[in-house]
Amino acid sequence: MRFAATKxxxxxxxxxxxxxxxRFFAAALDREAFTITKYDLTVQLEPQQQRLGARGTIxxxxxxxxxQKIIALQISSSLNWRAIRDAGKALQFVSQPYASDIDHxxxxxxxxxxxxxxxxxxxxxxxxxxxxxxxPVDMTRLTRVGVPDDxxxxxxxxxxxxxxxxxxxxxxxxxxxxxxxxADFSEGNSLFEVVDRWKARAAGSExxxxxxxxxxxxxxxxxxxxxxxxDHAANADDxxxxxxxxxxEKHGAKNDEVHTECQWNPLGTTAPMFAMADYxxxxxxxxxxxxxxxxxxxxxxxxxALSPAMRFVTEWFGKPSAxxxxxxxxxxxxxxxxxxxxxxxxMAGEDTKLAGINVVHELVHSALASPRPWVYEGLAHFxxxxxxxxxxxxxxxxxxxGIHRAAFLDAEKEVPAPPGKEIPTxxxxxxxxxxxxxxxxxxxxSKAAYVWWMLRDMVGDDALKAAIAKYxxxxxxxxxxxxxxxxxxxxxxxxxxxxxxxxxxxxxxxVRVQLAHPWDDEKPGGGKQTQMITVTLENTGNAxxxxxxxxxxxxxxxxxxLEVRARSTATLRVEIPSxxxxxxxxxxxVPENDLTNNVFKIPAQ
Length: 605
Ligand SMILES: [Zn+2]
What we know:
This protein has helices at 2-16, 23-26, 140-143, 149-155, 190-202, 240-251, 296-317, 352-367, 373-392, 394-409, 441-459, 461-470, 481-490, 495-503, and strands at 34-46, 51-62, 68-76, 79-86, 89-90, 93-99, 107-119, 124-134, 164-167, 206-214, 223-225, 257-264, 274-277, 280-284, 287-291, 324-327, 337-339, 342-344, 511-522, 529-539, 545-553, 556-564, 568-575, 580-585, 599-601. α9 (373-392) crosses α11 (441-459). β17 and β18 form a beta hairpin. Mean pLDDT is 87; it is low at 1-26 and 230-250. The protein contains 14 helices and 25 strands. The site of zinc ion has 5 residues, from α8 and α9.
């Protein structure tokens, strides 16, 4: 992938005829050699002009194993580099367009910066930077691969505008510098690989943002946000107006300006974003609801969802304390987006159920911090399903999880080995990243939600709650830490499960009934007969699971659970109330490769 991207880069330069023949051309450029470990940015918005101007400092660390003298710094192609300085001294740089679908415009403005001295591996350099430009709506990267305009519009909603502004970070709009290889939407997973790699590299980075915006043309002061602000809780007693005034005073902003500050320390999986609109500000600690005029009914659903969601989350994850913000999107069909504990979602609809699970999700983040995406996001998605179960039963919870199953099923498909290179089927191998360290959303959201759900089904609510209560982000240094907590609470060995699902990606199980043998158990001495069935389940997949199954009989049924390890069988005798008709394996709580072989008809005898 890197090779291909480098080749493309060279082509771009050649076509432009800028660097051909220079010494630089001969040198291989490793665009991902440097990780930006610290951002300290001051951003000024001019919404009427859709403009953004930024200045500040960034610290870059050489994470490659070689000396580096050149840095490729990238921002959205609708922005332009103005200055790059090292200790006050202007550095030479060449600014080039660089095709990449990591930005909504499908391209980046790349500054190829020549440093005054080579940077050793692990050493860092601090640069002062300045850039500016406009951020209008741009759907280029989607429409050029054939996404219809109306769908693209609801997905690609980032822009700075006079009445509404919302701009997401890396993966959407490079409104702050990044260092990445080219990503291509049309090349399978290339875009996601580049974004995931960027997120993994930046997970430990610090980001400080001070953002100021002009406003005018409207009578009321708009609300500017860049996250679920940390100073909000402290000002809970103030009216919104006073709070804003305080901030303005503190930061010396002018009358017709709004100002706010955010920090992400560390970034984790968060893509920093900012938004500004004429919001109605409703704060019920720890939840801030920002809604647009005309969306009052939707906003009320969010407000109403808070108390039951607080009770549920507190019981499972402890008391939510970090501030949470849910902010409205102007397009009623816009795809929602989460940045830390800030959720952007349209409140135009009045879906009570959706409001409930959205609030639960954010409150879980507010209650439980974790450096591990599969714990942080996985638990929040698990909680959505558990809350749905409390409200509407197990089946509707499994339907909700089913949306996740669809998302990650493809990723879990084994790619057949080329002829002659087949691996013996009994030998398990990893087909994707381990969940424990994955920065791939499909894994840490969707797969993780199932993993937590299966764990709960195996150990029960009380044991899982006890394990979560003991969880401390600061102690989560060893990848087996979570396993230890759950095993201690459940008093059960779960090493096999964590091995197949968390420490490795063994794909999914595929379980079916191999044998079912009904029989009558005659008690000694000619007592009452009991009807029994011996069920053997076979798992042909490389991941084990505890599978629920139901024996359906005339007018009744019996449900059990059976642990079936990878590539093995397990047998259980089940007492049944009457003549058995069929066995249904897996109620949908275990993600499987093949769900078509889950019903087994028992032949009449
Ligand atoms: Zn989340």
